[in-house]
Amino acid sequence: EKQEDDEMVLQILFAFYQLLQATQARVSLLSQTQIVVYLLDLLLDKSKQVRLMSDRCLDVVIEADEAWAAQIRQRKFEMHNKEWLEAVDEDEAEEYQDALALNNAMSSFNMGGGMDDGMGDFRDGAHPGMRLQQPLHAS
């Protein structure tokens, strides 16, 4: 059944391909239908043959209609480079999070008077929990 569905889609795509070759039919299809949207969706189809035929139809549209050309090229680029673009987006998100964390750390450093160097009150001769005792005098 799936094979038959793919074959039907291929036949329809071939008919559209032929219609897109004729100027009047192409103008009508592009102005009165959502054929480009459907063809772009079919670029994601599971069937390799369907994807290839859809791509061929879109190539005809690119050659014949500048209004659609930029959008189709952009969408094809995004689809072709989807994994790479997702990786770049993830890297940018991580870099943003790192920069935000650094910015927050620097803000708290500046507002809090600096970081504790671990010496605490030792510079003044005192430490919490340590009692100062009077020195023993030998008499």
From TrEMBL:
Gene Ontology cellular-component terms listed: axoneme; ciliary transition zone; kinesin II complex
One GO MF term: kinesin binding
Cross-referenced InterPro entries: KAP3
GO BP of this protein: cilium organization; microtubule-based movement
Pfam families from the UniProt entry: KAP (PF05804)
Protein name per the record: Uncharacterized protein
Organism of this sequence: Haptolina ericina
Native organism taxonomy: Eukaryota, Haptista, Haptophyta, Prymnesiophyceae, Prymnesiales
